[in-house]
Amino acid sequence: MTMDRRSVLGLGGAIAAGVALAPGLRLIAAPETSPGSVAASTPGKRWAMLIDTSRCSSDCSACVSACRTENNVPLFGDPERDIHWIRKVELRDQSQRKAPVSLPVLCNHCEQPPCVHVCPTEASFIRHDGLVLIDKHRCIGCRYCIIACPYKARSLVFYKTKPPKDTNPNVPIRAAGVVEKCTFCAHRLDEGKLPACVEACAKADKGAMLFGDLNDPKSEISQRLLKEKSQTIRPDLGLKPHVHYQGI
Asked: Which of 22, 51, 164, 225 has the most CB atoms within 10 Å of its CB?
């Protein structure tokens, strides 16, 4: 998959009323406050990820494979209905003055997530540590959240799947007709572990993914975001995403 750098960084033009998604549909920049949101200052942890694209090579898919194994996210062989919790994207500069950049794209766990704002059943919600999650018992498969997400990070489950024998027992069995996405491996975080993609990236000796708690000013991710230049995807929308990138 290839993407245009200017579009990814929101440099394609000023956004006044919103971004056109399809005829009759527009994504409106998030309001400063939202009654359904949990503030970043909520006591506890606030998880975030920093991805160094200079360490992420296009021929490495360790993070994608680890995510599929850990969360039982299979490929069905149907490109229009396959599920992707994390995918590799090639970012190209229209001016061709910069070399293409390979980067993983996943749910950005925004502070102002449009998926939560548009959900009619409150199936999409923000956990107290900032994770944007889906209550599959409430999800009716309307797909409003899929349309609202500017990162294309959500998928509708078209096929019921069975868990493999080695799947973590805390990962729920998916059922057809609901929406799902990256959870930052919430079940692993609750056990004091890192997300599977981050762990796999380190084992592949890439070290491109750094994960940690933004509420801890002494954490490595807090220190690096403070001292080193980084960017988020589409910051112009005001969603305050918590997946940060270096090198884009």
From this structure: 51
